[in-house]
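Budget justification aside, the reviewers requested a transparent look at the raw inputs and outputs of the sequence design task funded under Objective 1. We therefore reproduce one unedited record. The lines immediately below are the structure tokens for a 434-residue chain.
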């Protein structure tokens, strides 16, 4: 069975085509700058690669271009689009409605639309992808795989915020958690590597990339995670603050040049030149950009949100540079959450590193778990850690370490494909075990 995986952003459409249940990748690619004159599609089949630059006004046209490319004589891999038996969509927010992946129907679409209020940057583009595929592949079954679903096992004591309870009831303010597709795949794969059933392992999974989160896994289920009501919470990230004193944004709105939110205070002479509502909106937009796009590694270093570039700066300028400070802050926060989740879990079988930084950055892994042998029984083997890069999967802990340390490359697209195959596949087929 052929399964197409779609991951839509506001101006992009990422795709991957699988032969199931073998999980063999037939083709993959990305359509970028949808809606711009300079729209571009990059398509890969095996070692071959092509780029197409042309106006692509909507996601529907992007989906049509992808399908046309998949069946074209030169770069295609299919004889007919009707060979596609199912489509899996990444959807960021399913709220409390879904604790697992679901087959898409009108009710599911309605829920995704309703969650757009909580994920305005993600759910609307995800819906664009669903509607685009419905238009070009009518009747083909589709599945929604939610980033929030894996975290629906988090207990109430962990997901509620200490606000008046009616704010949860009325406004749905709670911890939802994100990166769930990655955390779930990595937790299951780690259990396989440890030779244990998935429901019998306690893990701390560190998904470290430009966006970063850590999840505490007990008996295969998420019981806490660092991201919260939005993906801004938790760890310091590439451009996001992570956890800060909630009074800081309020203080900045009243004092920071360019952010000041004039509240009038009954003094008409202090009124801004813009209408108050517009002025408030502008200040809040600037504050949102500050917290989400201008902070984290980029904000502290003043140079980059890319860990590789920061390490190159440290090599040139030394440990007193702001780049070094940014790395130290990032690593410190990873270590803090590992320690906290160790206390929550009580017994930990393994600490897992995944995603761009987690899979490839030996320095971050080593520093994050340094000096933890006596207190937590965690010890990284320096030689194994140094060699763990470029798709490495396996154990990087010493023989003496009571807690294993694993590097597990994430495969969110493969997980989505397997879920779509499980939910939409023919009854005679068997979905791969993740």
């Amino acid at each position: 069975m052929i399964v197409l995986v779609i991951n839509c952003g506001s101006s992009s459409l990422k795709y991957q085509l699988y032969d199931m249940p073998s999980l063999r990748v037939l083709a993959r690619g990305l359509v970028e700058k949808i809606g711009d004159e300079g729209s571009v599609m990059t398509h890969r089949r095996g070692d071959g690669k092509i780029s197409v630059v042309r106006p692509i006004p909507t996601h529907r046209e992007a989906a049509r271009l992808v399908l046309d490319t998949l069946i074209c004589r030169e770069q295609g891999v299919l004889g007919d689009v009707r060979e596609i038996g199912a489509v899996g969509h990444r959807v960021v927010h399913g709220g409390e409605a879904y604790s697992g992946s679901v087959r898409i129907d009108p009710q599911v679409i309605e829920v995704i639309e309703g969650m757009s209020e909580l994920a305005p940057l993600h759910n609307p583009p995800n819906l664009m992808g669903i509607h685009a595929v419905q238009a070009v592949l009518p009747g083909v079954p589709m599945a929604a795989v939610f980033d929030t679903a894996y975290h629906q096992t988090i207990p109430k004591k962990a997901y509620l915020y200490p606000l008046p309870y009616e704010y949860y009831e009325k406004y749905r303010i709670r911890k939802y958690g994100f990166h769930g597709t990655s955390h779930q795949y990595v937790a299951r794969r780690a259990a396989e590597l440890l030779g244990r059933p998935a429901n019998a392992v306690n893990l701390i999974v560190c998904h470290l990339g430009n966006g970063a989160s850590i999840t505490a896994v007990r008996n295969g289920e998420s019981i806490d995670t660092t991201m919260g009501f939005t993906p801004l919470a938790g760890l310091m990230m590439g451009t996001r603050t992570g956890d800060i004193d909630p009074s800081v944004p309020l203080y900045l709105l009243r004092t920071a040049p360019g952010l000041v939110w004039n509240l009038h205070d009954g003094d008409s002479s202090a009124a801004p030149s813009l209408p108050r509502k517009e002025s408030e909106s502008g200040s809040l937009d600037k504050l949102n950009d500050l917290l989400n796009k201008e902070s984290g590694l980029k904000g502290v270093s003043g140079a980059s949100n890319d860990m590789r570039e920061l390490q190159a700066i440290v090599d040139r300028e030394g440990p007193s540079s702001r780049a070094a400070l940014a790395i130290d802050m990032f690593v410190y926060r990873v270590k803090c959450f590992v320690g906290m989740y160790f206390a929550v879990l009580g017994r930990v079988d393994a600490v897992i590193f995944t995603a761009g930084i987690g899979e490839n950055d030996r320095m971050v892994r080593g520093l994050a778990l340094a000096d933890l042998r006596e207190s937590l029984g965690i010890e990284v083997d320096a030689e194994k850690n140094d060699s763990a890069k470029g798709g490495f999967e396996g154990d990087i802990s010493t023989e003496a370490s009571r807690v294993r340390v694993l590097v597990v490359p994430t495969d969110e697209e493969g997980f989505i494909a397997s879920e779509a195959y499980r939910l939409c596949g023919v009854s005679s087929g068997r979905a791969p075990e993740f």
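The longest helix spans residues 322-345. Confidence is low (pLDDT under 50) at residues 263-276, 427-434. Computational costs for records of this kind are itemized in the attached budget.
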